[in-house]
Every structure is written in C-alpha cells, then in structure tokens.
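We close this part of the discussion by returning to an individual protein. Part of our work consisted of pairing the sequence of a single chain with a tokenised description of its backbone. The amino acid sequence and the backbone structure tokens for this protein are reproduced below.
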Amino acid sequence: MSGPMRDPSLEASLAALVAVARRLDAASRLEPPGGEAVLRSIVEATVAMFGAEAASLALHDPSTDRLVFRVAAGARGQGVIGLSVAPGEGVAGYVFSSGSPLVIGDVAADPRFGRDTAERSGYVPRSLLAVPLVADVDVLGVLEVLDRLDGSSFGLRDIELATVFARQASVAISATRLERHGSHLLRDALIAVSAAVPGVLDDAAIEALVEAAIAGEATEDAPVWRIADRLARLRAIDADDADLIVEVLDAVLRRTARRGLRRSSAS
C-alpha cells in the first residue's frame, strides 16, 4: 500500500473495513438464488390472488438505464423474462418514470401500451394493472398483472392489493442490494477517513484497498461483524451526531499517535 500511513492501529481498522467489504462482495458475486426465489414467489402469489393470466417484475438496471423483466409467473408470463424497455417506454416505463400506478382496461386503445414488447414476449394482453416498486423515495421497478382469467376488469381495490405485493418485492430487493454494495461502502468509508485525516490515504491507496477486498476471500471474524453492525447504524445519524463521531475518532487517532511516539522514543 502506498502513502504515508504507518500507524498499526489505523492500519488494523482499515483492514477490518476491507474484510467487511470483502465478505459483502463475495456474497454479491454469488448472486444468491434465494433473492430471485423470493421475487418469484411474490409474482406467483400475485397471479393466484388476482386469478390472472400472468404477472411479472421489471427491475431498473442503473448501469444500462433499462427496465429488465427478471421474474414472471402464470401460464402466459414466461416469455417476457429477459426483455427490457427504456424508462418512459411502454406501460412499465411510464409507471417507473411517473411513480404512479396504472390500470388499462383496453390496451389496444391506450398509446402508452408497448405492443412491440408484448409481441416479443409471445402474449398480448387485453387489460393490465401496473404498480411501481418504491423504496423510500426511489422507484426500483414495476409489478405488472395481465388479464383476469374470468375476464373482469381491474379496479382501485386491485391497485391497493398489488401495491402490497410490490412493497414486499421492494423490501426483498433493497435487502439484496444492500448486501451487494460492499465495495462501494468501503470506498465511501475510506474517502471519509481520508477527508477527516488528511495525508492518511491517497487515491491510489484507497483503490488498492478496494481492489484487494474484491479480489480476496471472505472471512468469518466476529470483530469484523461488530464493525459492520456499527457502520450500518451510522446511516441513520444526523449531522450533529456525525460531528461528535468525528471528534471521537480524532481523539482516538491523537491517542494512538502519542502511543506511537512513546514507542519510538523508547526504542
């Protein structure tokens, strides 16, 4: 690692941060099947509850800025998996961009309906219901329900029910994504350390630590998980508390520096 950092205590703390990120990134690379299974169970329950031909979940991929249909259920639903649309394109894109639910009784008469995507999926519905997947203020994707088997229309009560299913999907997605952002969490933490204690880490050292975390193997150290727990809780603090934490960290660093000077003078 390049840079002026030589303090053993600080190096140990940074190593603990790396270990946390390493384990989180290891989990993200495995793409746990449990997360996908939970989403699949939600759309299957949606199909059963509404007595629908199909239901599907389209999730926003920030890297491509596309809505990708990830899971589907129902006799007519499987063909949509893997297809994608741009935000604002079709019903899914409209609901994602607006953040508002939508019911269409006759898709042939509605200009927001994307017939091309429907035809590529192998099923063109007569009616549909779509609701956004919302987490805090962010829209993560869209839940769509297509055609009741009995031919009846979707109504306001159906929007409420579909929103309950969408909320469950949002919780599952948010939990999975939190697991996957270890490297980003590590980088942000190291940048914060660098800003609070100038000269401790330069950009090259930060990137070297992040790359080492991603390339390494996960560990099971209990102290690391205690640190991870505290880091997670720090997300909820306000500005005054953040200032207090910085003061405490500065005090610890000064104490560590004094111990280092005493050791140097004694040797």
Q: What stands out?
A: Residues 239-266 form the longest helix (28 residues). The chain has two domains: 8-30+181-266, 33-178. Confidence is low (pLDDT under 50) at residues 1-5, 26-33, 217-225.
